[in-house]
């Protein structure tokens, strides 16, 4: 069971074989074990069979290789599914390799495919299928003569050849039998043994992956019975010399040491003990002289630890420790049978006397153990993990007393003088010892307290902290102990372990640690059966449930806020303990020099105080029963102490301002008896200062602090600025309203935002007699002026404030305008909100006006629903019509998010009941087009669902103008999906009215009115020109071509001329050219005027416009029958052969020629007036 992404959480390792330690790639695959068979068998067979055909084409060759890689990668998690197919794939590829007529490139390509298979399936399994007869040794060895170790394009060939050679080395015959007569007259041949060793040694020092395969070859070759007698000593001597002359300070030295260490580790792993023992001491001495722990190369340190442990295992006799603790049997069947016969008797030999004395342990073992203990403290996880496994293996061969000494040395890693690396390595070692039964139950009383401390380990380092890997590894220890010990052995520690694991599962900030703790808890519940409430806890906080909360723990501040809320819930369970023990401690922590401690303590004080007040209210008791005078005084002093120490300044001050604002809010809501106290003025100063200086606060914290300050102000005014219920203190009311109204004109946008929201948060009695003044101030903020055109956030927050004020003061139709929303001021409020729907301000951030429009739509909905519930007669017909039409326009525009919001507001007002909103234009038709049940599931943010529905509103005259305005912007937009579906919706409507001249006339008139109203407004006019181009090109107005000089085309031409007059906007000019070309289809004088405009553009000062005009006129001539047949060829020739980006005099001559051919008056140059 995987506990986390750390190696500590890996699956249990086999005591003999090392697991694949680099499992990151496998873990990254997300397909899961969902495949049932090798489904691409036929495709793979065809792919491999066609390798000779794709060899000549580099692109096809790389495509085939990439396709095969994609196929194989699907089976990274289930490689066993390839097993039935490995043989035929291998045979197909080896045919190319063993065929002497195959070109070298084909052989290299075949080996690339073989490498991909071995990478997915694992070389140990795949190599068994390679030919490994006596006859295969020489051909494989001969292939190395054609290899270039420095060719980085063909390293797969050398890698696979070395692995293949390692298999052929396993033949059960002496290699000398393969040599024949080596000394012939005139020449001497090297023996097969020498050749193989020479190949292996040469590839142990290369820089590519062939180095790893060479180490495998050496381990198989040197440990052969015939080779070890002749070559082992010389090879070990060569290896030690290579290590001695190599330095980890250079790249070449690192490469040589890496290959040599791999080879030595493999030899001492696979070789027989009696063969390796004579050399072990010498190798250990040489390894000590290399000083690998000082290297900054992680891989070298890991290989050094791996080799050291293999040397240590060589010094000790291979035996199973008779003193070890053993739970169950290696066989599942035997274990089950034993548990049935003796359900409570553990299989253990812990009390068996040790038959081996300490005299059998060589003195070198002490050095090995010492180096492994140092490895436990290494800075890299993979080194610590390898050292921990070495400790476990070594302890399994030591006598009981010495193994216990090793355990004591491991426990020394858990000192607070040690680093987090030592704690992590110690946890891994303890888990290994426990898993192998080498940590006897008598040691649990020493180990469990250490592990409990590790479960909460955290060490501060500057602005951050470390320790998540230690906590994760501690969970791994708990997981391992659950599998290693009988329930009665762990029973004394169940309460402590279960409590610690539950706390880590729920409260650890790191998602991996929460998951690891949950998995360890689950393992203990299942295997021990003694954890209290185990199943209930697992049901609530299982592995996946605790992992899905990752979004809540992205920011450390958020964790402290959640912890404070958790304390609030706990205070409900133990109020006396919280008031007596917890709250005083929290108060003392509010003065901590550590920022994070101080921040968390203030938040916790706020939440606990609120919780105790709630509990006291429920029980009908005063809050003083829980919080005494000292606690109350401590609460009041928090702000003053922070202020005196200047802790509201800088980045740390941002956190403290937010925390104290939350404290103010909770204290006010808890109705603490502080009215009239001086602390109220201090709190008010903090809120005012925060709101006025929001522009000095970092952008990522600004929104949180603004919200906290506004909430604190609302609570503070309601509780401590009320003279009596429903009456404000006159001085406080005057001061605050005047202050915030004055700051609405601040040159800082954020100050306007904060003060606007502050006015919106004031309670109703604070606005009494001041409503007209406050609304006027907020209305001024929503107006756009040249100096504050980019203050979109201020306008947005002012609208939010207006909406909140309306909800606060309520509605009274005949009430005074200074106290409530009434007949006298409702129209002005509506006008303010509706005007903001026209805010299309853009700056470097994009369409920032969209924030204002969104807030305006929300405010309009809230206000209209409020009036509808209380005083529907205040909703006038013209205002309601304007509101619904503007919402329809917004629901037809191009930004998905705001279009969806507009549609939801539109439908909320349409379908509002109890009572219905009065004066909605065309309500029956709207309810037919948008039935409540049908539109509930529509995703209005998706263009494919929104535009076809909104385009239906074009059939309703009341909505046509505004919907057409919104659609025109969308049809002429840039986003492909928006353009496609908005165009589709528009053209579907045009198809419906195509045969209705009256409807088409009305539509054309509305379209021209939209154009006229938005002349020179590039936001609308440029996309509108693109929309007109598409409509003309698709024959939407073909019915108008039957009449000469139809008013539609005449006015459209005039509007287009006016739009591009003196324009230098290339995009606008290009769009107008397309419209002019579409207008050519209309007969009469309008056609001649259109041609004149096009010919004027043929001599535009911009060459790109001249070229674009010529190109589109050429297409126009081909599309529409507007050029007499007699001059058609000549016109086409002039348009196509002229270099329209040439000098203007040349271009003008050709343009005049076209005018003559088509009977259009030549444009005349107008002389510039002389400058006097």
UniProtKB/TrEMBL annotation:
It comes from the Eukaryota. Residues 881-1068 form the Tubulin-folding cofactor D C-terminal domain. It is found in: Cell junction, Adherens junction; Cell junction, Tight junction; Cytoplasm, Cytoskeleton, Microtubule organizing center, Centrosome; Lateral cell membrane. Keywords: Cell junction, Cell membrane, Chaperone, Cytoplasm, Cytoskeleton, Membrane, Repeat, Tight junction. Residues 1-23, 337-361 are annotated as: Disordered. Its main location: other. It holds the Pfam family ARM_TBCD_2nd. One of its GO terms (molecular function) is beta-tubulin binding. The keyword Cytoplasm applies. Residues 14-23 have a biased composition (Acidic residues). GO terms for biological process: negative regulation of microtubule polymerization; post-chaperonin tubulin folding pathway; tubulin complex assembly. GO terms for cellular component: adherens junction; bicellular tight junction; centrosome; lateral plasma membrane. InterPro entries: ARM-like, ARM-type_fold, ARM_TBCD_2nd, TBCD, TBCD_C. Residues 299-535 form the Tubulin-folding cofactor D ARM repeats domain. Found in a complex with at least ARL2, PPP2CB, PPP2R1A, PPP2R2A, PPP2R5E and TBCD. Interacts with PPP2CB. Part of a supercomplex made of cofactors A to E. Cofactors A and D function by capturing and stabilizing tubulin in a quasi-native conformation. Cofactor E binds to the cofactor D-tubulin complex; interaction with cofactor C then causes the release of tubulin polypeptides that are committed to the native state. Interacts with ARL2; interaction is enhanced with the GDP-bound form of ARL2. Does not interact with ARL3, ARL4A and ARL4D. Interacts with beta tubulin. Interacts with TBCE. Tubulin-folding protein implicated in the first step of the tubulin folding pathway and required for tubulin complex assembly. Involved in the regulation of microtubule polymerization or depolymerization, it modulates microtubule dynamics by capturing GTP-bound beta-tubulin (TUBB). Its ability to interact with beta tubulin is regulated via its interaction with ARL2. Acts as a GTPase-activating protein (GAP) for ARL2. Induces microtubule disruption in absence of ARL2. Increases degradation of beta tubulin, when overexpressed in polarized cells. Belongs to the TBCD family. This is Tubulin-specific chaperone D. It comes from Bos taurus.
């Amino acid at each position: 069971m995987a506990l986390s992404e750390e190696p500590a959480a890996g699956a249990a390792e086999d005591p003999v074989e090392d697991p694949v330690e680099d499992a990151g790639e496998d873990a990254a695959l997300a397909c899961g074990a969902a495949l049932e068979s090798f489904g691409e068998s036929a495709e793979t067979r065809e792919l491999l069979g066609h390798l000779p055909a794709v060899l000549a084409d580099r692109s096809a060759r790389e495509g085939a290789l990439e396709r095969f890689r994609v196929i194989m990668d699907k089976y990274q998690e289930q490689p066993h599914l390839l097993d039935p197919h490995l043989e035929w794939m291998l045979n197909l590829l080896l045919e190319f390799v063993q065929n002497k007529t195959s070109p070298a490139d084909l052989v290299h390509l075949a080996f690339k495919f073989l490498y991909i298979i071995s990478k997915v399936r694992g070389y140990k399994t795949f190599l068994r299928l390679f030919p490994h007869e006596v006859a295969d040794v020489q051909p494989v060895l001969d292939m190395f003569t054609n290899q270039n170790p420095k060719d980085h394009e063909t390293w797969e060939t050398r890698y696979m050849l070395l692995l293949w050679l390692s298999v052929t080395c396993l033949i059960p015959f002496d290699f000398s039998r393969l040599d024949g007569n080596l000394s012939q007259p005139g020449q001497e041949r090297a023996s097969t043994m020498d050749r193989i060793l020479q190949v292996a040694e040469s590839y142990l020092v290369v820089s590519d992956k062939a180095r790893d395969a060479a180490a495998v070859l050496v381990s198989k070759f040197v440990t052969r019975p015939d080779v070890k007698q002749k070559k082992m000593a010389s090879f070990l001597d060569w290896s030690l010399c290579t290590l001695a002359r190599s330095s980890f300070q250079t790249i070449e030295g690192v490469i040589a040491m890496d290959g040599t260490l791999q080879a030595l580790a493999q030899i001492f792993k696979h070789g027989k003990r009696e063969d390796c023992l004579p050399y072990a001491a010498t190798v250990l001495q040489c390894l000590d002289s290399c000083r690998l722990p000082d290297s900054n190369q992680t891989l070298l340190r890991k290989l050094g630890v791996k080799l050291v442990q293999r040397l240590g295992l060589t010094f000790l006799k291979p035996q199973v420790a008779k003193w070890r603790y053993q739970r169950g049997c290696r066989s599942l069947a035997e274990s089950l049978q034993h548990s049935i016969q003796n359900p409570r008797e553990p299989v253990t030999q812990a009390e068996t006397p040790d038959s081996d004395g300490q005299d059998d342990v060589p003195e070198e073992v002490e050095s090995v153990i010492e180096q492994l203990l140092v490895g436990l403290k290494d800075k890299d996880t993979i080194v610590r993990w390898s050292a921990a496994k070495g400790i476990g293996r070594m302890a399994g061969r030591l006598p009981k007393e010495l193994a216990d000494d090793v355990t004591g040395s491991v426990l020394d890693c858990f000192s607070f003088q040690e680093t987090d690396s030592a704690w992590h390595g110690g946890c891994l070692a303890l888990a290994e010892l426990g898993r192998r039964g080498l940590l006897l139950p008598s040691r649990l009383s020493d180990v469990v307290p250490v592990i409990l401390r590790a479960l909460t380990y955290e060490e501060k380092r500057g602005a951050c902290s470390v320790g998540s890997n230690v906590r994760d590894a501690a969970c791994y220890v708990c997981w391992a102990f659950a599998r290693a010990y009988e329930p009665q052995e762990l029973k004394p520690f169940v309460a402590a372990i279960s409590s610690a694991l539950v706390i880590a599962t729920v409260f650890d900030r790191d998602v991996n640690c929460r998951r690891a703790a949950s998995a360890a808890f689950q393992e203990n519940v299942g295997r021990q059966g003694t954890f209290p409430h185990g199943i209930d806890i697992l049901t609530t906080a299982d592995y996946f449930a605790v992992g899905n909360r990752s979004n809540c723990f992205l920011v450390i501040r958020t964790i402290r806020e959640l912890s404070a809320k958790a304390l609030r819930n706990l205070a409900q369970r133990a109020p006396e303990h919280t008031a007596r023990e917890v709250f005083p401690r929290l108060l003392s922590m509010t003065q901590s020099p550590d920022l994070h401690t101080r921040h968390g303590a203030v938040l916790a004080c706020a939440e606990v105080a609120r919780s105790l007040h709630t509990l006291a209210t429920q029980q009908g008791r005063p809050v003083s029963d829980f919080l005494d005078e000292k606690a109350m005084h401590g609460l009041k002093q928090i702000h003053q102490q922070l202020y005196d120490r200047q802790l509201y300044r800088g980045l740390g001050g941002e956190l403290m301002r937010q925390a104290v604002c939350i404290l103010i809010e909770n204290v006010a809501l808890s109705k603490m008896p502080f009215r009239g106290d001086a602390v109220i003025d201090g709190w008010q100063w903090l809120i005012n200062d925060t709101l006025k200086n929001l522009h000095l606060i970092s952008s990522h914290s600004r929104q949180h602090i603004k919200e906290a300050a506004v909430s604190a102000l609302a609570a503070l005014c309601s509780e401590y600025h009320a003279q009596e219920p429903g009456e404000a203190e006159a001085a406080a009311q005057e001061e605050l309203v005047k202050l915030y109204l004055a700051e609405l004109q601040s040159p800082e946008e954020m100050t306007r935002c904060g003060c606007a929201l502050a006015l919106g948060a004031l309670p109703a009695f604070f606005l009494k007699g001041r409503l007209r003044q406050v609304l006027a101030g907020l209305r001024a903020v929503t107006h756009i002026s040249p100096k504050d055109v980019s203050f979109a956030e201020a306008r947005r927050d002012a609208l939010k404030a207006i909406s909140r004020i309306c909800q606060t003061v309520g509605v009274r139709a005949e009430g005074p305008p200074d106290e409530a929303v009434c007949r006298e001021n409702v129209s002005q409020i509506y006008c303010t909100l509706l005007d903001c729907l026209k805010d299309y301000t853009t700056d470097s951030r994009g369409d920032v006006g969209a924030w204002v429009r969104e807030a305006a739509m929300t405010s309009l909905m809230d206000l209209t629903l409020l009036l509808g519930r209380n005083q529907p007669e205040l909703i006038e017909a013209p205002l309601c019509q304007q509101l619904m039409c503007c919402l329809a326009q917004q629901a037809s525009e191009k930004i998905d998010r705001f279009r969806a919001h507009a549609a939801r507001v539109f439908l909320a007002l349409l379908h509002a009941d109890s009572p219905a909103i009065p004066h909605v234009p065309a309500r029956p038709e709207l309810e037919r087009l948008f039935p409540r049940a049908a539109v509930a599931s529509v995703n209005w943010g998706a263009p494919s669902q929104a535009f076809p529905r909104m385009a239906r509103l074009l059939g309703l005259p009341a909505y046509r103008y505004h919907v057409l305005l919104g659609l025109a912007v969308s049809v002429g937009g840039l986003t492909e999906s928006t353009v496609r579906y908005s165009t589709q919706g528009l053209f579907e409507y045009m198809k419906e009215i195509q045969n209705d001249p009256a409807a088409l006339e009305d539509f054309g008139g509305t379209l021209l009115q939209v154009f006229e109203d938005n002349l020179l407004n590039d936001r609308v006019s440029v996309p509108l020109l693109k929309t007109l181009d598409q409509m003309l090109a698709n024959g939407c107005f073909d019915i108008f071509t039957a009449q000469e000089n139809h008013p539609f085309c005449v006015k459209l031409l005039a509007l287009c001329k006016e739009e591009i007059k003196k324009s230098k906007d290339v995009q606008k000019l290009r769009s107008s050219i397309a419209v002019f070309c579409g207008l050519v289809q209309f007969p009469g004088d309008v056609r001649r005027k259109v041609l004149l405009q096009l010919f004027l553009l043929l001599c535009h000062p911009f060459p790109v416009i001249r070229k674009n005009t010529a190109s589109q006129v050429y297409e126009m001539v081909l599309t529409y029958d507007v050029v007499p047949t007699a001059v058609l060829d000549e016109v086409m020739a002039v348009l196509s052969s002229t270099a329209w980006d040439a000098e203007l005099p040349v271009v003008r001559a050709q343009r005049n020629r076209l005018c003559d051919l088509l009977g259009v008056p030549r444009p005349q140059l107008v002389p510039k007036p002389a400058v006097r």
